[in-house]
């Protein structure tokens, strides 16, 4: 894999296939201890009106050094209008 941008795209694509929710953005990319990647992806889970009450979630996606999916998990769920802690 070429770098963080490639890791972010591969993680987002893999997650989109698995969870079937609309991706909002990639919020973090970092190297893992085993030379793979850990990518955090924010996802729109429940769209509501007004938009500030929609529910989003952050998923952490683990990729190996070749960019293949190893694992994913939801690490947070929040209302769009809520302030970050």
Major sheet, described briefly? Answer: 4 strands, antiparallel
Mean pLDDT: 93
How would you classify the helix and strand content by structural class? Answer: alpha+beta
> Could you tell me the strand content as a percent range?
over 45%
End-to-end gap: 33 Å
- Spatial extent as radius of gyration: 13 Å
| H/E series | HEEEE
**Poorly predicted regions:** none
Number of strands: 4
The gross shape turns out to be elongated
Describe the structure.
By secondary structure, this protein is α+β, with helices and mostly antiparallel strands. It is 19% helix and 47% strand. It contains 1 helix and 4 strands. A hairpin with a 5-residue loop joins β3 and β4 (69-79). The longest helix has 16 residues, at 4-19. The protein is elongated and about 40 Å long. The N and C termini lie far apart (33 Å). The mean pLDDT is 93.
Care to give the gist of this entry?
The chain is an alpha+beta fold and 85 residues long.
Topology:
Elements: H1 4-19, E1 22-31, E2 37-46, E3 55-63, E4 69-79
Antiparallel strand pairs: 1-2, 2-3, 3-4
Which descriptors would you attach to this protein?
85 residues; alpha+beta; 19% helix; elongated
């Amino acid at each position: 894999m070429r770098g963080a941008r490639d890791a972010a795209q591969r993680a987002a694509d893999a997650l989109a296939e698995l969870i079937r929710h609309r991706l909002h953005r990639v919020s973090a990319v970092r190297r893992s201890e085993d030379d793979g990647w850990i990518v955090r992806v924010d996802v729109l889970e429940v769209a509501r009106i007004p938009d500030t009450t929609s529910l989003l979630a952050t998923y952490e996606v683990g990729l190996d050094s070749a960019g293949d999916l190893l694992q994913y998990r939801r690490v947070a769920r929040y209302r769009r209008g809520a302030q970050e802690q």
